[in-house]
Amino acid sequence: MTVTSDLAPRRLRDIFGTFASGLTVVTGSTPDGPAGFTCQSFAALSLDPPLVTFSPSRTSTTWPVLRKAGSFTINILPAEHRHLAGQFARSGADKFAGVEHAPSPLGNPVLDNALAWIDCDLHAEYDGGDHTIVVAAVRHLHARQDAEPLLFFRGAYAGLEPLGHLLEAAR
What is the pTM of this model? Predict the structure, then answer.
């Protein structure tokens, strides 16, 4: 085994990218209309009280707008929404162009056919280096049972392979 102390950003990205994660789009309702951004760093934090966390980049121009709104919805993307991950990751474009959505109980955009959505209020923020660590209080949530998640692994989109194929390969 070769061990390295190389902490260059590219090396960190490569190593951190071996942890498969889901993809979310964080959305909110603002005075200028709906706003949102793609966020890969999302996790459940606490069951009691119900809290989640995500970490937008400090360079995000959308997060400050959603912070000011005070509430937002985390849309967990299904495999069929791969195009939305890219669409909401772009800066400067109308991210909601052609995107069907409905209001959440808090009035935030819920993307049609999201795998799940979690309506939240801002609870706290912390310094996270080149990101902001956001802690959000869960207010409402819903999940579909008929779809697979969109995953991100080693810098590319991925999906789940049916468990039967994995079990056969292990034999």
Answer: 0.89
